Amino acid sequence: MIALGAPETVGASEGGIAVQQARTADDQRMTTPGANRGLLEVFRQRHLLSLIVRKEVQIRYRGSIFGWLWSYVKPLVQFVVFFVAIGVFLGLNDRVDFFPIYLLSGITVVTFFNEAFSNGTRSLVDNAALIKKIYLPREMFPIASMMIAAVNTVPQIIVVIAISLFFGWAPSFASLGAILLALVIIAVLASGLGLFFGSINVTFRDAQSFVEIIVMVAIWASPVMYEWTQVARVVPEWLFVLYRLNPITAAVELFHYGVWFPLGPDASPIPDIWLYGLIALVTSLIALVIGQLVFRRLEGRFAQDL
Asked: For the ABC transmembrane type-2 domain, which residue ranges apply (predicted)?
């Protein structure tokens, strides 16, 4: 009897050890409720991020007969208005080669930044009801705002490229790389500023008004309505260097380099455009890190202040 019972006892002991090990493994995988890894957690839950982006994009065109066609109509109308009102009436078509393309490509970059930055600043307040009811990485809302702005900018980029192709633009690896780098700079910069001002805006709603001023100034602080040569002629060299260090200026000029520069026989890119493009990318990454740090520090007050 003893000999027969021993194996059963051993088997039961081994089974208990296995169950205990499984429970220990489960305990190790459990995390503190409300804890997350910031931006890494946002992209780990990318399915939820995609749902938020898809919902907001669908809401934008809900009840619209033409839907996405409006995204292409607007830049086309802008091109015609720029060509006639500014190019013909004000004579800029004679002073700047392919001025409507130059202007529309610059506005495309600035519009992407302004929409991503402004919506990112408001994103937490706009989703206050959701934030107070359930837990999810709160960084998801400013990042979703940037991605929604990117989706809305795609049609305008397509229109700019289509018009440039019509006028003889021939894409190259350098031009496509410049366009991609410009969009990455804006995406990272807008995300960082959206995190920073969005977290402050929860407690101090004045931040939103301050952002509106930044957005208003952004289009004039970069070579969108004018060429960089006009700035270089009237400001000291040190101030022109600061002007080029503006990440939006670098992004706009990179986009010009990609789309407009090959078309203009008299066009010249801003000096050291690739160097300042890389500096702008580093500056944008620093802004993203600072925005994340401030966001995490203020996150604990969101539910209370909302």
From this structure: 66-298
